[in-house]
Design goal:
This is Antitoxin. InterPro entries: Arc_rbn_hlx_hlx. One of its GO terms (biological process) is regulation of DNA-templated transcription. The chain has one domain. The chain is built from two helices and no strands. The chain has 78 residues and is mainly α.
């Protein structure tokens, strides 16, 4: 059974026009495709930002370690 035959079966069962079913299917396809494009774009953006985020996190960690050491020296009076 071909796709068009399946559409015709659904159209007969649901008493709906073939063009309306195809219109709904196309709208759903476009909606899902847009979601997929956005997901792929976000994934690419995260991958591109990963090295930058890692560098920033490392710098912040080093600064935090230094701040803790300074605070401990101040508290201990050294």
């Amino acid at each position: 059974m071909g796709m068009l035959d399946e559409v015709d079966t659904l159209v007969a069962r649901d008493r709906e026009s073939r063009s309306n079913v195809i219109r709904q299917a196309t709208a759903l396809y476009l909606k899902e495709r847009k979601k997929q494009i956005i997901r792929e774009s976000l994934q690419q953006g995260y991958l591109e930002m990963a090295p930058i985020n890692l560098r920033l996190a490392s710098e912040a960690f080093d600064a935090e370690v230094e701040a803790v050491m300074i605070a401990e020296r101040l508290v201990s009076g050294v």
